[in-house]
Design goal:
The protein is mainly α. It has one domain. The protein is 82% helix and 0% strand. The chain has 16 helices and no strands. The protein has helices at residues 3-24, 26-34, 40-46, 48-61, 70-86, 93-104, 109-140, 145-170, 173-185, 189-194, 197-208, 211-238, 245-261, 271-283, 287-314, 316-326. Helix 4 packs antiparallel against helix 12 (211-238). The longest helix is centred in the middle third of the chain and has 32 residues, at 109-140. It starts with a helix and ends with a helix. 43% of the residues are buried.
Length: 327
């Protein structure tokens, strides 16, 4: 995506979020956010739990004995996830960072690339399962039929796309699409990292021979998403509006689904906030509380993600820039 377009979408999303805050009242929203108070560091600390679950998921993707130690993979995955969450990279820049850092630590390029691609598929599979759980929670809470129908239709469509993605991985997708991708990206940075499309296909085949490990990776990704539901549940309670587990699951699942669909907007700005407002009534939350909940989650995201970006800027980022210069 061209940078001017990315920046334009970022501006639109930011203006939309600001407009929502002004609509509900800046003072009211700020006062609600402040209710979290000194518990905010505990929310930041809780994020360690989903980070560890995501690290286990990525470790399972590698064939036995072929990856890096679990703490290293968890650290690399955390850096990549932070890039995708906070930077205008279309949810793929973090994957390049992960592949590069794995290669710099001795993982063969094709295997690093294949592990990143499979991990992305595990993320998509877990998001699908998580989205269906959210739709189920929405139906259980007797939400409006039009909202349920729209979200269910979107989720099922995503299911078809996910199935196609898994099929293409097993049928030599990268060998067939290599030239088109190189033209689109106007460079060979990705292929310089992973060693070429044909090698990447062979590495993918090696990974998918261990189906139980790939299934386990999808399951641990889902565990990570469920751990973030706890965050939503805690924030609502700290604001003085305790909700049940089903309501928290519905909010987290469907807002993340909407944010995922709005991946072209950096950080899903505006999309996440709009989803919280749309679902507030079903969860039993006033609109300003739902909006404040989204903002607190944004704050936690910044507190956990900015340190990762600083690390990349000072360290690993130099290696990525050098690779691009040599491409």
């Amino acid at each position: 995506m061209l940078k001017p377009t990315t920046y334009a979408l970022l501006a639109v999303g930011l203006l939309a979020a600001i407009a929502m805050v002004m609509w509900r009242g800046v003072g009211v929203v700020a006062g609600t956010v402040a209710l979290v108070g000194w518990w905010f560091p505990a929310l930041v600390a809780w994020y360690v739990a989903p980070v560890m679950a995501m690290g286990i998921s990525w470790a399972l993707v590698f064939p036995p004995g072929a990856g890096l130690p679990l703490p290293v993979l968890t650290y690399i995955n955390y850096l990549g996830a932070s890039v995708n969450a906070l930077l205008p990279v279309g949810a793929i820049g973090g994957e390049m960072v992960k592949a590069l850092m794995a290669v710099r630590r001795g993982v063969p390029g094709p295997l690093a690339g294949a592990a990143v691609v499979t991990d992305k598929a595990a993320q998509a599979a877990s998001q699908l399962a998580f989205g269906l759980m959210g739709v189920g929670a929405l139906i259980y809470l007797e939400a409006r039929a039009d909202i349920v129908t729209g979200l269910l239709g979107t989720t099922l469509f995503f299911c078809v796309l996910l199935g196609a993605f898994f099929w293409f991985q097993r049928e030599g997708m990268f060998s067939r699409l290599a030239r088109g991708i190189e033209r689109m990206t106007r460079g060979r940075t990705w292929w310089n990292i992973v060693g070429g499309a044909s090698e990447l296909d062979h590495a993918l085949d090696r990974i998918y021979r261990h189906r139980a490990r790939v299934t386990g990776a999808c399951a641990w990704r889902l565990v990570a998403r469920l751990l973030v539901v706890v965050e939503t549940w805690l924030i609502a309670g700290l604001m003085g509006y305790p909700i049940g587990w089903v309501e928290a699951l519905m909010l987290e699942s469907l807002t993340q689904t909407v944010r995922g669909m709005a991946f072209v907007v950096p950080s899903g700005l505006g999309a996440q906030e709009g989803a919280f407002l749309l679902l507030a009534g079903t969860a039993g939350l006033p609109l300003e509380v739902a909006l404040s909940l989204s903002l607190v989650k944004r704050g936690r995201e910044l507190c956990t993600g900015v340190p990762a970006l600083l690390v990349l800027q000072w360290g690993a980022g130099r290696g990525l820039r050098a690779l691009r210069r040599g491409a």
